[in-house]
Every structure is written in C-alpha cells, then in structure tokens.
C-alpha cells in the first residue's frame, strides 16, 4: 500500500479501542481533528504537509496536532497564546523579559523551555516558509489549518525546530466569487471585524483571496494607579494571496500580509517577598506600608552562588504561589519627562516616529512569500519557495511595576521625576529572508524529496531607561547586529517494503554561521577577559562561528489494516549556538565575575536525540478517531542563560548592582511523555473530543548562579524543567443539527475545557503557579449563509496566573536586587461574553 494514498474508511475492531484504552490515556487526546472527520468527504481525511508533501493525518508517521479553520473559529483562536491553550503539551512563556506582554513570546513544546529571552526551540512557518515570530499567527486571515509538529523537525524544517515546528497553511482561493464578513462585540470593549473575499481574476487560471481583520479588547485588570485597564490589546492586519495556474502542471502562489499591534501596559504584577514601606530603608514597619510582603518561607541561599560560600537567609516563596494581596498597579503617567524621552532618537535603532508614543507595545510586521510547484512528470515535481520578513517593535514599560509616587527619588534633578520610578524602553528589529528548492519523486516503491535551503536572519535591539535624568544623562543603548546564516541540504526517502510496511530515512546537512557586530557607537575594550583589548569600529565584525551538523531521522510504520497504523522513529536535532556579546560592554570587574560564573563568549549548539512510538487510526465505522504517541528525548549540551549580579557601588548609590547575563552549555535533561487524542461522532447530534499530554522531565545537570544564590541548591539532578506544564488536557462536547421546520437552518452548542498544570519558576522547583482550568461556552444558529453566535470565555472566571518568573522588588536604593526578591506573574483574561454575526456571500 502506498502511504500517500488515502484509503476509504472501514470498520476497525472493538479490540483496537480496547487496546487504546489500556494505554491509560483514553480521556486525554492529542490531535484536534475530530470535529473535521469529514474534511475530505470521500476519505474522511485531514491533509497535512508535515513531510513536505500532502498526506492523510492518520497515515502520517509524525506526531502532530491539527486545528482546522472550523475549529480555529469555534475555539476563537486569534493568537499563539490561544493556540497553546487549546493544544496539550504546548505552553507560551511571555514574561521572560520582566513583563508579560506580546513582545517576547517563547513557544515551549514538550517541556523544551528556551533558556533566555531571545532563545527559541520551536519555529513558525506559513505554507512552509519561515516567519519572524509567533505573533504572526493572527496575521493570517482565516487559515485552512494550523499544524503543530512535535519532536525534532530539523530534517525538513531546519533551523530552530529543535523541539518542533508550527506550520500555518493558507486557504487556496476558488474560481467562484465568495466571501464573508464577521463582526463580534463583547464585554470590556471586545470587538472584531473581519472581511474576506476571494474569486477569479482570469477564470481558474488566476485567483485571489483578500482578508482584513481588526481585533481589540480592554484588559481585564484595573490599574490602581489611575483607574485604567491593564492588558489592553489591539491588532490590525490585512493579507493577500494570489494563485496562478497557467497550466495543469504549474501552480504559483504569492502571499503577503501587513500587521500592526498596539497594546497597552501588560497585565502582570509582582508578588513581593518583603514589605515595602516609606521608611529610610524601605523595610521597617515605622514607615507607611506601600506593598505587603507575601513570603511564606525562608530559603538558605549562598552569597555568591558558588558552592561552599557564605550562606544567607532569604525570604521567598515555596509551594504554590499565593493569591494577590496588593493592588495591581503600574505608573503610566505620560508627563513631559516621558514625552521628551520617547521623542529623542539618541541611542535608538528606530526613529521616534516608528516607536511607541506611550506606555505599552507598538509593533509592525511585514511578510511576503512566493511558492512555485511544477509537475515535471507523474513521478517528478519541483517546488521553489522564497520568503521575506520585516518586524520591528517598541515597548515602554514601568519596570518597577507598582505605584511608587510615595517614594522620593534620591537621584532626582533636572530630567527626572521627584519620586522614584523606573520607566524602561526596549526596541527590536528583525529582518530575514529565506529560499528553498526541492524535488519530490515517486518511482515504484520509492518516494520522497531532496532539496536545499538558505535562511539569512539579522536582529538588533536597544534598551534603556531608569530613574535618572531621562533624555539628559539616561539614554537607550543600541546593540550591533546579530546575524545567522543557515544553509541546509536535505532529503527524505520512503521505501514501501510491502503493502503494509514502510521505511523512511530522512536527513539534513546543516551549516550555521553566526556573526556578531559592533554597535553604532563603536567599542573600546580595556580588558581582555573575553576579547583582546583595543578599539573596535562601529558596525565592524566582532566575532564569528561556524557549526556543521548532520540531522537524521528514521521512521518505520506498519499499516495493520486500512484503519490502524503504528509507527516508530528516531531523530536528532540541533539548536544553533549563540553569543554572549552583551558582557563585553561591561567593566573588567563585571567581565571577570561573569567568566567566573561560567559565561562564555560563544556557546556550542545544543543537541537532542529523540525516540517515538505511536498509533493512529479509526474505529466504529469511522465514527471514532484516535492518535497516541510516546516519546523519550535526551537534551544534551543545553544552552542555559546565566544571570550574574555584581556589586557596582557609586558615590550616590552604595547599593548599586550591575546585572549581566550570558550563556553557557551548562545543562543536560531527559524528557519523556505520552500524548493522545480520542474523538467520537456519537451521532448526527453529538460530537465528543478529548486530548491530553503528560510531559515529564528529569534534569541531569544544570548550573544557574542566581538560582543557587537564592535557593542554595547546587545539585539540580532529578528536578523538573521550569515554565512548562507537566499535565495538560482539553475536552469538548458539542451538540448540533438541523432546526426542524426551518429550511437550511442549523444550530450548535459546545463547551470546551482547557487544563494546564502549574509551572515551576526555575530549575530548583521551589515555587510554582496553581493549576489552571478554563471553561469556554459557545452556541449559535444559522440559516443559509447567515449565522449568529453567543459566547462566554473563562465561564468560571479562573484567576490563576498564566506565567511566572523570578524577579526583584525595586526600591529607590535598589537594596533588594542583589538576590531574587519577588515573582513576576502574568494575569489571565477574566470572564468575557459576547455575540458574533457572520454573513457569507
């Protein structure tokens, strides 16, 4: 049997279902294909492109979940955070940068938690073309489906697919005019207006699809500082897809979008370990209480974070994080100090007109790609892809994160406020382009693909702020470009040994060349700890490294019967190395402290070896579908971010601390788990689906000086990965059918339950967030091309935190920044109700 051919459904035996049940995970599930079991009316198949060719999801020997356009709509998925909430084993970390917003968002699959703010272990693609960041999901107007591939995907998708890949697949426009207009309004000023139209330009030879989308909401949390809201978000996007089919054998697609995000202050807050008062040391109870401390334990830390050093007792948090006792607040006053600071171009990579004009995030994204598919013969076809991304954003935040107007600023003067405050600007620009060419072939029992690809990406940033003289003595500092060029030659060959047994060998030879450039201000080094002392010209090459790796994957799959397939695979993946160039701008004392802590200027690639086994199929005459997988992964040479806090006293501030972070290959982790999906179309009225994942981790080796300083833990063996849920699940019940007596009348009502277990704040596993259960409800009626829906999200108003990170309590003299003294937590969207109308034409 050719595994690329779709086979008609037939009844699987009940013994198969019994076998699945004995795996102990019948309630959890993995792929979300159930409600679209009839996506292809003839075969009941959902088509995926996990191996660079179209295959039936249930006959593809790769672990992946799929959300089709119908499910994306019914689950109201408009962002990567929504996608993660609806996909077990998938988490989003959006507060690694000291705030919980959409600027730095990290995808975490199966517990492969990136080590630093700019690190990634999973990449996103549109139609197989790389895109710049996860935020671009909501810029693709009503995609046909979203594929979440888990496990190393390096053989086909290349760079930064160490833990997996996410591929957004566009809808192909038809040759008849059609379209839709969708309008939604809800509580807290939620609204969405989306329009889409498609049709012929020149018959079926040239067609197009045009979309426009505007979505916005007020945040769920009141800002105690000024009564405004925290967590406001707004996104505007437009996309155009043009498809040309000059001949039956040639298809050309051109796709592009423009997106603009404009968000307010993030919905996050700090849980402070100790009281903050107006006393001289900001701690004694003799002063007025500003923030109530919430510590529930005392940790025995180490003064230097080095084993054998002097111990210190530090109040902190243990177990499950406590609830909020302090008002959620953030300084958001836009006075002349802030206005002048944001209007200044000094030290910035973006012009003031491109940057944010207030507290919050302002981002613009552009994406273009073209694909060409040409059938040379029935056995050979050629595909060419080219893509371009341009994304830049500017984010301005109140880094201290509370109302500090009662605390005097000891460093006041011209250009600074009279009270303590710590406004902070971060900006980033990313440019990349990619090319890929491949040949697909099929010769008898042999089929597969061979090709080559190139990705060239550049990124630079600036940051700065504080409680000093903004725009007078305090300015942002722009970094130089970091550049990564990745060339890969790849292949995949499947051999149909018998009608039931297939063997696949895949691989990629990859060359990663990383470059770091001097910033626009140039650089003078007086210390040779990391690089030779001397003067380095602006924009000159600072350092360069090249890494070469071969990344294989082998798969064996066996089609037991037309409705049941089992598979096993072994794969290797590589995440490219990186640089710690930020440390060379520091003083000799700080550089030497960083080196003593293990920070290296360049780090080698991290590697993973992954083993999987899975089963996929249908049962009960095609009414039930199921997919299950188990995996074991060995993550070696793990790149970890190391934070070093060095005393750097000044005449004005004897408690001044310098924070410096860098990377090192300082970790080793084993990850293993099971993932599964069960779905059932009970009858024409009832549909059921459930998905779940158990993602376990076992740290073998890790070093983190700041964590050891706080906790006194130096042996992390046996601990679990932070920021990733061990248990996650979804469940859905949907009722629906025709409305009796109404021509073309339909109705539905569904409830979705999403569950994520709590996540640790760090590798010492001292404190974690509570488990999170979210129930969403949606119901609607339709007649012909018109539909009306009512929805309620977070029905039970779950307020548990969405993210967590070790952080600091900021006071005017920075007396509590020598060690972690607070937790930064992300606040969830609270109950939202609304109504949505859609008209198709």
From TrEMBL:
<keyword id="KW-0813">Transport</keyword>
<keyword id="KW-0406">Ion transport</keyword>
<feature type="signal peptide">
    <location>
        <begin position="1"/>
        <end position="31"/>
    </location>
</feature>
<keyword id="KW-0675">Receptor</keyword>
<comment type="similarity">
    <text>Belongs to the TonB-dependent receptor family.</text>
</comment>
<protein>
    <submittedName>
        <fullName>TonB-dependent receptor</fullName>
    </submittedName>
</protein>
<keyword id="KW-0408">Iron</keyword>
<dbReference type="InterPro" id="IPR000531">
    <property type="entry name" value="Beta-barrel_TonB"/>
</dbReference>
<keyword id="KW-0472">Membrane</keyword>
<feature type="domain" description="TonB-dependent receptor-like beta-barrel">
    <location>
        <begin position="351"/>
        <end position="795"/>
    </location>
</feature>
<keyword id="KW-0798">TonB box</keyword>
<keyword id="KW-0732">Signal</keyword>
<keyword id="KW-0812">Transmembrane</keyword>
<dbReference type="InterPro" id="IPR036942">
    <property type="entry name" value="Beta-barrel_TonB_sf"/>
</dbReference>
<keyword id="KW-0998">Cell outer membrane</keyword>
<keyword id="KW-1134">Transmembrane beta strand</keyword>
<dbReference type="InterPro" id="IPR039426">
    <property type="entry name" value="TonB-dep_rcpt-like"/>
</dbReference>
<feature type="domain" description="TonB-dependent receptor plug">
    <location>
        <begin position="57"/>
        <end position="165"/>
    </location>
</feature>
<dbReference type="Pfam" id="PF07715">
    <property type="entry name" value="Plug"/>
</dbReference>
<keyword id="KW-0410">Iron transport</keyword>
<dbReference type="InterPro" id="IPR037066">
    <property type="entry name" value="Plug_dom_sf"/>
</dbReference>
<dbReference type="InterPro" id="IPR012910">
    <property type="entry name" value="Plug_dom"/>
</dbReference>
<dbReference type="Pfam" id="PF00593">
    <property type="entry name" value="TonB_dep_Rec_b-barrel"/>
</dbReference>
């Amino acid at each position: 049997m050719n595994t690329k051919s779709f086979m008609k459904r037939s009844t699987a035996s009940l013994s198969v279902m019994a076998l699945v049940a004995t795996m102990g995970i019948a309630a959890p599930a993995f792929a979300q294909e159930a409600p679209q079991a009839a996506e292809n009316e003839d075969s009941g198949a959902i088509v995926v492109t996990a191996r660079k060719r179209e295959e039936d999801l249930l006959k593809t020997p790769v672990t992946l979940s799929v959300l089709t356009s119908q499910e994306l709509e019914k689950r109201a998925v408009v962002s990567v955070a929504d996608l993660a909430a609806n996909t077990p084993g998938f988490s989003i970390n959006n507060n690694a940068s000291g705030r919980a917003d959409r600027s730095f968002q990290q995808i975490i699959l199966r517990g492969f938690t990136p080590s630093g703010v700019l690190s990634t272990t999973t990449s996103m693609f549109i139609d197989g073309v790389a895109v710049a960041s996860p935020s671009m999901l909501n810029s693709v107007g009503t995609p046909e489906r979203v594929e979440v591939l888990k496990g190393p995907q390096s053989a086909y998708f290349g760079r930064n697919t160490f833990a997996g890949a996410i591929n957004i697949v566009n809808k192909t426009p038809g040759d008849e005019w059609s379209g839709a207009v969708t309008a939604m309004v809800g509580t807290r000023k939620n609204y969405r207006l989306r329009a889409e139209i498609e049709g012929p330009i020149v018959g079926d030879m040239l067609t197009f699809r045009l979309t426009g989308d505007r979505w916005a909401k007020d945040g769920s949390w009141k800002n105690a500082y000024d009564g405004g809201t925290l967590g406001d978000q707004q996104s505007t996007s437009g996309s155009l897809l043009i498809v040309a089919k000059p001949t039956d054998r040639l298809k050309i697609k051109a796709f592009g979008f423009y997106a603009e995000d404009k968000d307010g202050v993030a919905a996050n807050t700090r849980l402070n370990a100790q009281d903050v008062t107006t006393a001289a040391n900001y701690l004694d109870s003799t002063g007025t209480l500003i923030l109530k401390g919430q510590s529930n334990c005392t940790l025995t830390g180490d003064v230097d974070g080095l084993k054998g050093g002097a111990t210190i007792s530090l109040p902190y948090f243990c177990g499950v994080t406590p609830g909020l006792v302090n008002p959620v607040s953030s300084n958001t006053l836009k006075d002349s100090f802030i206005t002048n600071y944001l209007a200044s171009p000094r030290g910035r990579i973006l012009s003031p007109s491109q940057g944010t004009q207030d507290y919050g995030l302002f981002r613009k994204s552009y994406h273009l790609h073209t694909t060409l598919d040409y059938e040379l013969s029935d056995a050979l076809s050629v595909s060419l892809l080219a893509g371009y991304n341009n994304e830049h954003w500017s984010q301005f935040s109140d880094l201290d994160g509370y109302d500090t107007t009662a605390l005097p600023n000891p460093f006041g003067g011209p250009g600074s406020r009279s009270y303590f405050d710590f406004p902070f600007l971060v900006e980033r620009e990313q440019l990349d382009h990619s090319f890929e060419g491949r040949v697909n072939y099929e010769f008898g029992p042999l089929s597969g693909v061979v090709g080559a690809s190139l990705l060239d990406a550049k990124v630079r940033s600036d940051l700065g702020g504080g409680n000093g003289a903004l725009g007078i003595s305090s300015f942002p500092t722009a970094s130089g470009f970091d550049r990564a060029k990745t060339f890969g030659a790849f292949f995949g060959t499947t051999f149909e040994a018998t009608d039931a047994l297939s063997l696949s060998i895949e691989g990629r030879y990859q060359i990663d060349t990383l470059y770091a450039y001097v910033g626009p201000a140039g650089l003078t080094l007086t210390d040779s700890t990391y690089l030779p002392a001397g003067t380095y010209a602006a924009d000159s090459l600072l350092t360069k490294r090249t890494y070469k790796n071969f990344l294989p994957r082998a798969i064996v799959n066996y089609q037991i019967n037309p409705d049941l397939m089992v598979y096993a695979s072994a794969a290797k993946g590589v995440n490219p190395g990186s640089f710690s160039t930020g440390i060379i701008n520091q003083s000799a004392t700080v550089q030497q402290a960083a080196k003593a802590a293990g920070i290296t200027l360049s780090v080698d690639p991290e590697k993973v070896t992954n083993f999987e086994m899975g089963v996929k199929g249908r049962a009960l005459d095609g009414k039930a579908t199921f997919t299950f997988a188990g995996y074991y992964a060995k993550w070696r040479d793990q790149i970890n971010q190391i934070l070093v806090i060095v005393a750097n006293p000044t005449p004005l501030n004897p408690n001044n601390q310098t924070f410096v972070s860098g990377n090192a290959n300082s970790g080793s982790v084993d990850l293993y788990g099971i993932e599964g999906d069960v779905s059932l179309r009970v009858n024409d009225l009832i549909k059921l689906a459930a998905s779940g994942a158990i993602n376990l981790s076992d740290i073998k080796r890790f070093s983190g000086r700041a964590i050891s300083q706080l906790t006194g833990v130096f042996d992390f063996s046996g601990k679990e990965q932070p920021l990733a849920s061990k248990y996650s699940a979804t469940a859905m019940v949907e009722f629906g059918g025709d409305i009796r007596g109404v021509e073309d009348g339909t109705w539905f009502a569904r409830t979705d339950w999403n569950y994520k277990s709590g996540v640790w704040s760090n590798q010492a596993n001292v404190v974690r967030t509570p488990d999170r259960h979210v129930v969403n409800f949606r119901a609607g009626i339709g007649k012909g091309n018109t539909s009306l829906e009512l929805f309620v999200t977070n029905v039970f108003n779950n307020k548990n935190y969405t993210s967590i990170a070790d952080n600091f309590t900021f006071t005017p003299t920075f007396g509590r920044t020598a060690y972690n003294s607070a937790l930064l937590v992300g606040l969830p969207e609270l109950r939202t109700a609304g109504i949505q109308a859609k008209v198709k034409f």
